[in-house]
Every structure is written in structure tokens, then in C-alpha cells.
Design goal:
It is globular and about 45 Å long. Strands 2, 4, 5, 6, 9, 10 and 11 form a 7-stranded mixed sheet that branches. A 4-stranded antiparallel sheet has the order 1-3-8-7, with no helix packed on it. By secondary structure, it is an all-beta fold. The protein contains no helices and 11 strands. A hairpin with a 6-residue loop joins β4 and β5.
């Protein structure tokens, strides 16, 4: 069982920065693929950034060059550094984890609100 706890959301002005953190419980963090998703009201949850257990990263086009995902296996934490924030980044962000092995469960955090003001 893996529990995920996000933090770091809040209110920021457009052009500003925030760093989201997702702390995981359990002993298999280094074997987990980790992702950050976001969901606006009435819309599907979308993948924002992804980092594999081997630290390979990928990003959705709208955040490339602005957001950076990273992980610290010693702290069992994944981060999302968000720079040059835009109003359209205003949504709830969710941390996601899935094992790198076949048949793994998928885990979600409770979400953290990011609000970007103009």
C-alpha cells in the first residue's frame, strides 16, 4: 500500500512560481513511476508531468519549458517545480504513483489547489 500526500499548492500571481511536493509512504518508492496530473472542473484529469523509476521525464506540451518534475528517492518525494505560471494553470493537481512491475496498483493523492491570479 502506498499513500501519497501533496503539499505546496496555493495562490500565486501570474508569472510566479510554486513547487509542489508529494511525499509517499512505503518502502518501494524507488521502484515507482510518479506523475503529476491536473483536473479542471468538468474536465478530464490530464497528465502534466511524469518521471519513471529510472528518472526519465516527460511533459505535456503546455508546460514544457515551464515545469520540472524531479524525485528524491531518499526522501520518498516527487516534486513539481512550476515557473512562469499562467491563469490557465489554475486547477487541482494530483500526485500519482504506479509500480514499475506488471500488475501494480495505481495510487492517487488527495490533490492540492493551485490558483494563479492575474
Amino acid at each position: 500500500q502506498v499513500r501519497l500526500l501533496e503539499s505546496g499548492g496555493g495562490l500565486v500571481q501570474a508569472g510566479g512560481s510554486l513547487r509542489l511536493s508529494c511525499a509517499a509512504s512505503g518502502s518501494v518508492f524507488s521502484l515507482l513511476h510518479m506523475g503529476w496530473y491536473r483536473q479542471a472542473p468538468g474536465k478530464q484529469r490530464e497528465l502534466v508531468a511524469f518521471i519513471t523509476s529510472g528518472a526519465t521525464t516527460s511533459y505535456t506540451d503546455s508546460v514544457k519549458g515551464r515545469f520540472t518534475i524531479s524525485r528524491d528517492n531518499a526522501k520518498k518525494t516527487v516534486y513539481l517545480q512550476m515557473n512562469s505560471l499562467k491563469r490557465e494553470d489554475t486547477v487541482v493537481y494530483y500526485c500519482n504513483a504506479a509500480g514499475s512491475w506488471s500488475g501494480s496498483n495505481v495510487y492517487w493523492g488527495q490533490g492540492t489547489q493551485v490558483t494563479v491570479s492575474s
